[in-house]
Design brief:
Elements: H1 2-15, E1 28-34, E2 39-48, E3 51-60, H2 63-76, H3 81-95, H4 102-106, H5 121-139
Antiparallel strand pairs: 1-2, 2-3
The chain binds zinc ion (ZN).
Zinc ion (ZN) binds next to helix 2.
């Protein structure tokens, strides 16, 4: 079943989160928190000429928020800021959209693993926390320390 596949992706990203840990040479950072659930994630990235050359996240939170951060980092790594923000818009539209819009879910690739949160509005915040934190990091000032 499709839902089992989604479940498997979330479990996989919890067990083996991608892009997890500190990022040497990061020049953008942001912290995000979802007090409703206790999720707290920090995102660091290396932005070079409007392209996300590297991204890492650290922190703690529920399975949904952790899998979402891992999937998000995978999805935006190597992409431009515009591509990342456009993907967030599509992702956000899918997970807050009507239940019968599975055609849209296909357009967001592996991020569709999180589509089940549509049934649980409170979990939407878990699934979007990493993305909002990414946005904050991209909007923030260059914070590179001299090396
Ligand atoms: Zn959560």
């Amino acid at each position: 079943m499709l839902s089992d596949l989604y479940q498997e992706t979330i479990l996989d990203h919890n067990r083996r989160p991608r892009h997890y840990g500190p990022l040497p040479g990061a020049n953008r950072r942001a912290d995000g928190a979802n007090p409703l659930c206790g999720d707290r994630w920090s995102i660091a990235l290396r932005l070079v000429d409007d392209r996300i050359e590297a991204i890492r996240f650290e922190g703690s939170g529920c399975a949904i928020s952790k899998a979402s951060a891992s999937l998000m980092a995978d999805a935006v790594s190597g992409h431009t800021v515009q591509e990342a923000l456009a993907l967030f818009d599509r992702f956000h539209a899918v997970i807050t959209g009507p239940m019968d819009r599975d055609d849209d879910a296909e357009a967001i690739g592996k991020l569709a693993a999180l589509v089940g949160v549509r049934e649980f509005p409170i979990r939407v915040k878990c699934a979007t926390l990493a993305w909002h934190t990414l946005k904050a990091a991209l909007a923030g000032a260059d914070c590179a320390t001299s090396e």
